[in-house]
Every structure is written in C-alpha cells, then in structure tokens.
Model the fold of this input.
Amino acid sequence: MDAEGSVSDESGKRRRVHGMLKLYYGLNEEGKAREQPQSLDPCDINGPHFDPELYLNKLRRECSLSELMDHETCMVKQIRSLDSDMQTLVYENYNKFISATDTIRKMKNDFKKMEDEMDCLSANMAAITDFSASISGTLQDQHAQITKLSGVHTLLRKLQFLFELPARLNKCLELQAYAQAVSSHRRARCVLQQYSHLPSFKGIQDDCNAIMEKLALELRQKFRDGGTSARDLSECVELLLQLDEPAEELCDKFLSHARSRLELDLQGLEAEIKPYPPTPAPKEAATRKSSSSTAAGSPSDNSPKTLSLPSPTPNTDILEFIDRGCNEFISSLCLVITSYQELFIKHAQTGELASKNIPQMASGKLQAFVDDLVARYFSLVERRIQEEKGVGDNSLLVRALDRFHRRLQAVAKLLPGSAVPNRGTEIVIRAATERVKQYLSALQSFYMDSLTDVRQALAMPRLSVAGTGAHLGGPAAGRDAPNSLPELLSSLSASILNQLKSVLASVHLFTAKDITFSNKPYFKGEFCSQGVRENLVVNFIRFVCQSSRQFCESAGDKGGSTPPALLLLLSRLCLDFETSTISYILTLTDEQFLVQHQNPITPVTTLCGEAREAAQKLLNHYVKVQGLIISQMLRKSVETRDWVNTIEPRNVRAVMKRVVEDTTSIDVQVGLLYEEGVRKAHSSDSSKRTFSVYSSSRQQPRYAASYTPSAPMDTNLLSNIHKLFSERIDIFSSVEFNKVSVMTGIIKISLKTFLECVRLRTFGRYGLQQIQVDCHYLQMYLWRFVSDENLVHFLLDEIVGSSAHRCLDPSPMEQSVIEVICERG
Amino acid sequence: MEDDAPVIYGLEFQARALTAQTAETDAIRFLVGTQSLKFDNQIHIIDFDDENNIINKNVLLHQAGEIWHIAASPADKAVLTTCYNKTSDSRVVSCAAVWRMPCDWDSGSHESPDDSAHNPQTLELLCHLDDSAHRNTACVLWEPMGDGNRVISLADNHALLWDLQESSTQATVSSTATLEGKGQLKFTSGKWSPHHNCSQLATANDTTIRGWDLRTMSQIYCIENAHGQLVRDLDFNPNRQYYLASCGDDCKVKFWDVRNVQEPVKVLEDHSHWVWSVRYNHSHDQLVLTASSDSRLILSNMVSISSEPFGHLVDDEELSEGEDNHQEDKSKEPLKDSVVSTYEEHEDSVYAAEWSSADPWLFASLSYDGRLVINRVPRALKYRILL
Done:
C-alpha cells in the first residue's frame, strides 16, 4: 500500500513540478489550467496563496513527530529534484540561444549579396524596353499595309463567291442539296441587293434569283407531292420559309396535307361504327348475358342464351374503338401539332419572321384545324358511346372513357388554351349521366319484372286454393295460398336491394381513384349528389312508391285487376322501405360516393314520408278491395232474395259462412305480413258472454219498442239517443299498419253494406228472423278479428234494427232458438 | 260574421224522399215523403221562414204506401209525383202516380196549426204512371222548366215518356226506350237534361251511365264503369250543357264531359261511404252538394269546372280602379276546388239533399231517421262568389 501510494505521489509531484515550470514560462497547458479555479488554500504547497507559516503550523498541529519527520524528508527530496530539473533546463536553453544567434548572423550576409544582383537586373530591363520601342517604331508602316492587304483579300474572296454563286447554286440544285443552296443564297442576298445598281452585280443577282425561283418551285413541288416523310416535309417548309415564301400559304398547305392523313384515320373509325344495323343483335345479346349474370336470381336469366353464341361479325367493343381512336387519330394529331408548332411557331419566333405576326396567324390556323378535326372525332366517339346501350359491364365503358380522357390530356399539353379537353370532359360527363339514366331504367324494368314474377307466384297457388277450397271449404284452404307471402316479400326486397347495390357498384367505377376524370369537380360533387344520389337512387325509390300507388289508382274502379295479396305485399314492402331500406340505401350511397351535401338534396325523411304514404294507400286499397269482395257477396245475397215470402229460417245462410271463411283467410293472409296490433281489452271468452248480454239486454228492448204500435217515435228516439253517445264510424277510413286495424276496416265495410242493402228491402216475418240468425252467426265469429267488438255489435244491431223496421210483421225469433240454429250450423 | 246555425226538423217516420217545390220561387219550400210500413205515410210540406229562422210544416196523407221518390211539377205548385211501395197479400209492388195537393192545405194550417197533424188532409190522386207491363218504377222525372205536361218514369229497364193531359188527370205513354243486355238490367236513377231543348235524358243502371235522345228514344252515349260500384245519382250542370255529375257506391263523386266519356273531368273522394245524392246549385254551378251514408253532407266548391272558372270578371275592373294592392291581391288569388264545408248534423245515412228553388244559398238534407236539416252556404263564400 505504501509503495502504491508513493508511486502515485511521485507522479503527482512530477506533474506539479512541470506545472510550475510551465507557469514560469508563461505557457498555459491547452488553456485548461487557467480554467481550473486556483486553489485558495494557503496550505496547498503548490497553490499561489501558499503560506509557509500556516503550513508549518498546520503540520505541527496535525502530525505526529514521525510523520513530521517523514514529511520533512519527503520535502527535502522534492526540493532536490526540483533543483536538478532547473539546472538541466537552464543548460538546454542556453545552447539553443547560441545556435539562434549564429543563424541570424549568416542571414545578414546573404541579403547583402542579393541586393547587388537585383540592381543589375533592373538596369538590364531598362535597356530591353528601349530596344523594343525602337523596333516597333520601325515596323509600324509595314503592319498597316499588311492589314489592308488581308482586307482586300477577303473582299476578293467574297467577290469570287458572288461570281461563282450561280454556278454553285446550279450545282446544288443538281445535287438536290437544297439546304446548302438556300444558305449560300441567303449569305449573298444582302450584298447583291446593296450593289444591284452595278450592272455586273445586277446580272449575278438576276441569275441567282432565277435559280432560286427554280429551287423554290422544286421545293414547293416536293412539298405538294406529300409522299415525303415528316422530316423531309418539315425541312421543306423550313427552307421555303427562309426563301420568304408566304407563311400563311405554307401553313394552309401543311395543314391540308395533315388533314388528309387524319381524315383517313377518322374514316377508319367511322367504318367501325358504320355497320350499324347488323351489329346490335349480337351486341344486345352479349350485354343481356352479362347483365343477367350481374342480376343474381333475376327472372330474365332464362332468356335464350343461344342468341349470344352466333356472332358472325363481332363489333369491336368500345374499349377497342377508343384505343384505336387514341392510337391512330390522337397520336398523329399530336405529331402534327408538335411539328407544326416547331415549324411555324417556335421557329418563327426566333427568326426575322417574328415581326410579321406569323406565330399568331399560325397558331390561329392550328386552333381552327384542331377544333374542326377534334369536333369530328368527338362526334364519332359520342355516336359510339350512344351505341353502348347495355348496362352489363360498366367497367369497359369506364375504362374506355378514362383512356379517351387521358389521351386528350396530351392534346391539352400541346395546346394549352384549347377547348378540346373541356369538351372531352363534357363528353365523359354526358356519357356518365346517360349511363346513370340507363341504370335507372334498368332498375325500373327489373322492379316491374320482379313484380310480374310475384304476381305469377301469387296466382299459381291461388288457383290451387280455388280448386281445393271448392270442396274443402275450411279455413285451412286459405292457409295454402299466402304461405309464401313472407318469402315472396323477403325475396323481392332482397333482390331489389341486391340489384341496387350492384348498380351502385357499377356506377362507383366512375369515381374510382385511378380514373383520370374522377378528379374533375363534376365527378367529385355533382355526379355523386345529383347524378347518383338524386337521379338514380332517389328516383328509383320514388318510382317504387309511385308504381305501387298506381296499383291503387288504375285498378281502383275495376276492383279485381290487381290481386289483393299483391297490394298487401307491396304495402308491406313500402312500409319496410320506410322503416329501414331507404335510410340504409341512402347511407350506403352517401358513404360510397362521399356525397357532399352542398346542393339541395332530397332528405331521407321526405322519401320515407312518400314510402309511408304509398304503404298507407296500398293498405287502404287492400282493405277496400277485400271489403268490396265481401260486400258484393252480402249485397247479392240480400238483393236477390224475396224476403217477404221466405221460409222460416232453419240454417245460417251459406253466404254468411262464406263471409266468415273469407274473413278468416284474409286474417291469415294479413297476419303473415303485419303484426297483430292492439285491440280493446276483452276477456277470452267474450264471444259468448258479451253476445248474450248484448242480445238480451240491448237488443230485445229495442224490438219491444219497435213493434209496439202505439209508439213509433220511440224507436227513432232510442236509436238516436244511442247514436248520440256512440262515436261516428268512418267506413272507408285509413287503417293502421296492423292486422286488427285492417280486419276492422274490412268488416266495417262489409257490415255497412249489409245495413244499407237491408234498408232497401222489405221483410216478412221470416225474413227478419233469417237476418237475426245471420247476424248472430256473424257476431259469433267476427268479434275476434276487430279492435273493438262494440263496433261489430253496433253495426249488427243496426242491421237487425233496420230490418225490423222494414218488416211487415215484425215478430222476432227467440234468442235461444237463434243460438241453437247458429251452433248447429 | 257568424254563419247561421242549421235548422233541424224531425219527422216521426223514416224518410228517403226529398224535393224542393220547383214551381214555387218565392217561398222556401221542401217536400218530404216518409217511409213506414205500418202507418199511413205522409208528405211533409216544409216552409222555411228565412228571416225568423222558423220552420212551418204541413202534413198531407199519402195512404197509397211508403214513398221512395218524390218530384214536384215545375209548372204547377200543387202537382207532384211519387214513387211508392204498395204491399198487398205479402207482395210488395212499386208504383208511381201523379198527385194534387188539396188547395187549402195552407189555410188549414193557419187556422189550427196545433192539430193539423191530427187531422191531415189527403192527396188527391190525378193518375197512375204505370200499367201492367211496366212496374217497379224507380223514379219519375218532370220535364225541366216545362209546362208540367211531360214526365219520364224509369221502370225496371224501361224509360217511359208520358204525356199528361186534361190537367194531368190522364197519362199516356208517348214513347219508350228499353235497356237491353245480359241479365236483369234495372234503372236505378236518372236525370232529364235542361239543355238541348230538353231532348236528352241521362240514366244510371248498375255501374253504367247512359245518355238518351228523347226524340228518337235511342242511346247517344254510354259511360261504362262510370263508377266502381253502383251509380246512385246524377245531375246536370245547369249552365254547361255537356257537364254531368254522378255519384255512387265507390264513395266518389265524378264529373263528366259527355263528349269524352273515357275519363272523368274530376273526381272527388271526400266521403267515407256510398254517395247517394249529388246536386248542382241551380244558379252557381261551382257549388255541389253531396249526401252520403257516412251521415255527412258535403258542400264542394268546384270552381275549375264551373261556368265561371275565374270568378266574376267584373271584379278586376272594379278593383283596379281604386282599391289598394292588398285587396287586389286577395281578389286575384283564384278560388280553388275545395270542400267548402262538411255538415255533420245527421246521425244516420243521408239519402237526399236538395237546393231550394227560391233561395240559391239554401239547401235541405234528409237522413233516414227522418231528420231534415236546412243549411246555408257560408256567408264568406257567398260574398266571394257574388262580389
């Protein structure tokens, strides 16, 4: 431990010594030492504030004697080493000083020698200057002469060039080196022009002009021939321009030349559209096939597919057509535009021709040229697009339109101010809206087709029911027919939804990200909100509602032309639309198309209102139709009988049984699609009890009054008082969307008819009794269908009351007998 | 400007037949025929005192049977026809006859108004309007604005044109028209057109409306399926010769232009049950009265198909002279086709409604329970039409 401690001490000491030496020589070691705060401790032997007195006192105070001894020896050792270090340093420094002094002395000697040499040099330079001045003075005359001579030489060369020019030009002409000839002539032209007053120059000029005219003629001929390549052509034009040919004429010629070639392309395109009459058949078949494949489960699926197979001259599809148009017409148009611009516009801008307003003229011509040709091209494209009637594969059309639009961008780049791309976009927009319209009509016809299917499906079991119903006659017969009603409904609404979704998906292609025109503001805004949402989706929903409503109106007078079950089904469909389908479809559309609600759009609530209205109307109509069917039976049964001379009732009339049966089957039918609904509370066995109460306590006294001869007024009074307290009954009124309300409506209509018919007849004693029996029978069975059985009571009461009034011999049947007859029958 | 309250009059018996006394143009007078199988039927002559809002009644006995239809002569106040049911030997027969009211029925009531009901006078039978071949008369129509000598009766499927002679005591059939077709066809109702010199007749059977030329007794037009159900009543527009209103069991009132019978000109669907009667106002043909078995009477204002679709033309001139803009705007806004008012005073089916022949703003309606209600056109509308 001691050894280690001493070693570290040793190195520490040495460093300290070095530090002090450095301090002495004013070196600061990397500036580090200065930064370190100097120790202020007076006991630090190396610090600047070292106080030997304090140090000693401290040592004396703190250390033991032996330590002090150690300390002392250590200190002595240190002092000794410091002294020896100092001695070596001083010695080294002295040596260096001596050698430096020597060097300086040597340098002094060398400088003196150099000064002498420099003086010599400057004297020599002055002599040289003198000499050179004298030489140039002597040579000056000769130099001027030489310059003059070389000037004459060049002039002579030029003159020689001029004299040789006609010959040279002729030779160029022979070799067809037109470019060289033109450039030679251009060089000489000004000079000749300037000195044309001299006869010799004049002659040369005339010769040259004649030759150049010939050349120009030849060039023009070449230009006119047209068979030359584009590069030759442009070279020709360039040369002619340099020969001061009228630029306008050249433009026209150039363009007409280009036009003839582009026209060929257009004709080729037109030829593809031309075979109009024979193509549609296979075309339609093809599209039909694809459309039916998209319409899953569509009824038109079974259309004969053999039609699509034989296609002798398959028309090119629209994508090919557009491709061809782009590759042939548009690309050569672009070529023409670039070379034209190169020749007449950019080139002219740099040359001396710029002053003659040629660029403006030329670009004006180009504009007209392009507009004209593109207009023809567009009309062809539009014709082709219009042929695209089938709604099958939308992606083909979208891709074609995309390509069409994309390629027009090239033209737009070449001709910045042109209206061409805008008009192209307009065509795309028109095609898109047209397509949306086609989809709408396709959806509509799909809907009508599905309705026809539903009708057929409804009609088929109906026939069988009519067959079975004839000999079975039970309520079970009615069950057969409507069994499929909920299935039909769900399949109908599902297929509508699917179809709509697939159409939306097809239309969505128009706004796909990778389609160039989807960035246009139209496709971002109006197409989504107006085109798709309003014109397609909203219009379709409206169409569904309207066509449903038409079933009420057109069939209103004829009654049976629309099967009642269809009315019921449609009513439920519209109601479903109102509750869920519409909002679902619209949300789907809004999400898919990111419809921005800037334009006024039809809100969901309006559509729902319309759907609900349609549903209400259909249901009301259903009630009316069913009510009328039963009414008709009742009316015929009342009108065709001789009630005065009828026999004593033994049975309930068959027609009443039929009425109850029909009502039951209607009840089943409605129950399949509509919920039960609320009815006024009545106990489960109320049929019996209530009826007995009704007949004994209410009906009987009224009879008593009615056939007491002394008091004819009482009847009126009684029934009037009764009516005062009962609510007015609206017979053909709106019903609610539930089974009970529907049934109540039907029964109301039937019984009211019964009442009115009874009032028009006159009854004998047994006629009245028969009515009593019938009414009791109806009462037994009808109460369960209605929301408020008092309604049935009241109407039947009225019927019996009215027939009692209309009875010549009103003696009613015993209640117990009625009950027996009814229970038996 | 409160409208006058309706005046209600109760009959003891049930009743279906109502008519205005057509020849009477000074007093407001209606005739009601009762239906009773057990008692002597009556004809109530209802006089309405417009100023005091009081009803005066007189009762005449109609002992022949219960009255299904009643019509008053346009020329002679005292003459009327009824269609009635006669029951004998448990058989019910429908007949028609021309009657004369006793000349002093009016004075009688003045002397002893209280017991006039107890001692009613009897109608004097002038002649029967049926023979053995033609029974079951549904209704009898007087020649409109005629001299009271020609009537048409509709019996089963025959339309009979009668000439009344010797002050209506003798009736002879001058010509007949017969409806032919499958099944048992039966006229339910008809109307004699006041236009074309009274040479046209319109009849209803089942759902069909037919027009007849009385000179040749041949059919001139036919509206098949005019209504979905039975057609109950018809009326001619008094001012537009080709316009015809019909009503029926499909709860609708339809307006027809008989020159184009494919489509009705207008359809009203305000009633909630069968419509039994439709009547044009005699002077202002935009006012149409309909009675229905939903116990309601509805007064509609059918401006668009009336003879004055734009209101009084004088209006604008008068107003443009000095009235302020506000008034002008109000008057220029045309009246729309609308229901003017629904009358709910009846508790039972309303089978008949008639305009008064004396006061064009007044009408009566009759419900099966024997309640006769007299109402007026709302004043606001009346002034709108007049001014």
